């Protein structure tokens, strides 16, 4: 009997990736996928155990599709270049951000980036547990930026009445000054400062703050 042909699995994965790229995670289901490949949901389970395994197969090799950056010798700079590489790769693959947002699947080929950040953080003076926390903080910053912009773009594309997302200051009125004095007073500067914020500068500040914990102990 054996396992179904590899070529059939490859066709399933290719079709799943196309659905993800064109329509996003919400559009991918075993029923939808079966229809696309001219099969039945039950038949698909001979090739993939469940949707989680399917997503793992779809992600496999995505990290390797982007050439590794040349990393500088200084460990602090290695963290920065690696983190920026993660952001830049995922920015070009918004559907991958959606899949990673499920929280329990990833591309094993991307683990070299995690290893690099952990090793460099430890060489910068962080204890191993602190290095793990530092990596998670960096990942949450990157993922948060990508998820926010993806949501903003999605809302803009779905808006039919000209309505757009209202940033925090635009929601305030003069009456809010009594309970939100600081936020209200900074409202006029909000857009200018927010537009100047970018991921490279943010990563520099975040990494410096995280590594300062190790420096303080030294």
Shape label: flat
SS-derived structural category: mainly alpha
Q: Tally the beta strands.
A: 0
The profile of the biggest β sheet is: none
Which segments are poorly predicted (pLDDT under 50) over 5 or more consecutive residues? Answer: none
Span from first to last CA?
62 Å
Radius of gyration: 22 Å
Estimated helix fraction: 55-70%
Put simply, the count of helices is: 11
* SSE series: HHHHHHHHHHH
Q: What's the pLDDT, averaged over the residues?
A: 86
**Beta-strand content estimate:** under 5%
Your description of this structure?
- The chain is mainly alpha-helical and 218 residues long.
- 65% of the residues lie in helices and 0% in strands.
- The chain contains 11 helices and no strands.
- The N and C termini lie far apart (62 Å).
What features would you highlight for this structure?
218 residues; mainly alpha; 11 helices; flat
Short précis:
The protein is an all-alpha fold and 218 residues long.
Topology (elements, then pairings):
Layout lengths: L5 H18 L6 H8 L3 H4 L6 H9 L15 H17 L2 H7 L10 H13 L4 H31 L22 H5 L1 H10 L2 H19 L1
Helix pairs in contact: 1-2, 1-4, 5-7, 5-8, 5-11, 7-8, 8-11
């Amino acid at each position: 009997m054996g396992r179904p042909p590899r070529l059939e699995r490859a066709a399933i994965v290719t079709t799943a990736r196309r659905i993800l790229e064109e329509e996003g995670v919400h559009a991918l289901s075993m029923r939808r996928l079966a229809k696309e490949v001219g099969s039945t949901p039950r038949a698909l389970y001979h090739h993939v155990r469940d949707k989680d395994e399917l997503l793992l197969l779809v992600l496999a090799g995505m990290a390797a599709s982007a050439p590794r950056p040349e990393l500088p010798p200084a460990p602090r700079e290695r963290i920065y270049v690696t983190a920026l590489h993660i952001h830049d790769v995922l920015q070009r693959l918004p559907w991958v951000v959606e899949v990673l947002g499920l929280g329990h699947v990833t591309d094993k080929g991307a683990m070299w980036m995690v290893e690099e950040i952990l090793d460099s953080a430890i060489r910068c003076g962080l204890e191993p547990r602190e290095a793990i926390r530092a990596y998670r903080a960096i990942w949450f910053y990157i993922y948060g930026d990508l998820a926010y912009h993806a949501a903003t773009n999605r809302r803009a594309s779905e808006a039919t009445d000209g309505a757009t997302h209202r940033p925090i200051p635009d929601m305030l009125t003069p009456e809010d000054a009594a309970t939100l004095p600081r936020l209200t007073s900074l409202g006029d500067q909000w857009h200018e400062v927010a537009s100047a914020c970018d991921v490279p500068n943010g990563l520099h500040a975040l990494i410096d703050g995280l590594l300062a914990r190790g420096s303080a102990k030294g």
